[in-house]
Amino acid sequence: MKVAIIHYWLVGMRGGEQVLEALLDLYPEADIFTHVYVPEAVSDKIRSHLVCTTFINKLPQSAKLYQSYLPLMPLALESLDLTGYDLVISSESGPAKGVLAPPTALHVCYCHTPMRYIWDFYHRYRRQAGFWTRTLMPPLCHYLRLWDVTTAARVDAFAANSVNVARRIDRFYGRRDVTVIPAPIHAAAFDPTCERGNRYLVVGELVAYKQPELAVEACLLMNRPLTVIGGGPLLDRLRALARGHDIEVLGRQETAVVREHLSRCRALLFPGEEDFGLVPLEAMASGAPVIALARGGALETVIDGETGILYSGETAQDLARAMERFEQISSFPPSRLSQRAAQFDIAIFRRQFLDFIEESKRVKADGEIFTCQPKRHENFET
Q1: pLDDT band at 127, cuts 50/70/90?
Q2: Calpha distance 294→17 (Å, rounded)
Q3: Sign of the torsion angle spanned by Cα atoms 178, 182, 184, 188
């Protein structure tokens, strides 16, 4: 088959790009289409493929201001010519699924999340936006929601990275035909045998919805050492909060450095609501327990009292109480943690995704209508 993979934008290596790499392993001859491409910000594996961009890539400062061009992305996607492709895989988090695939092609969407800034996180993003963005968001997002729902009909089959996201697809798109294929990690790449230190750890993009400042504030309340790894708009604010305390804010780090910290931290703090979240799985694969907000994808990966602590509430005090509970538990065996993480290994993802493609081909060829409920793979444990 001739395969096209549509990925929203390629400006860094986060969870969505790790999934893209897994898809490229399955389809090594695939071509990639995206709105914005910054070659030096992505992996060698991605750079080794043909990467085609929409006209968004040519707009001023697109590498930094790509999200400001969101209203133009529907038009940009529909301008892509996918003639001759047999399989189209849209990797959806920003706009990707709205391409016009050839009628004979199979179009499947692997959905990391429906665009959170126009759907369930809309009011949160608007409250945090500047004056002009806050003023323009209502009409623009109304238009984008209409387009987003309409383009769901262009997809032959949906897969979601979690039950959490499958429910959102059902709610926003009215599509109950969703197969759940958890996003993968390379479980064998992490070392669960290292001796654990006394520092808590935060890893991830330092953006508002991830709430990294709650981890800093909780560690200040508890007088506990903390390491924060990641870049983003909150970096300077966190450094100011941490000044004068045993809290180090390292900024972005290489993969090897991140893995070293995961293998030696006391526990990972995960105070934000994620669609799925690969970092908790990477922590568990490294033998580190996870203290996570009991919302979103963490409910599907962290087992309370066994592989970490799940807590309610969104204040530093709530997180501090969860840390106190964690410290009262004698131990979290690294072997149990790594076993849990191994249930999300990339080998399982590959098998599940190929099964999904074969079933989608069969249904399209037979002209059937999907009627199945969101489902889990047989090895997907809650």
Answers
A1: confident
A2: 25
A3: negative
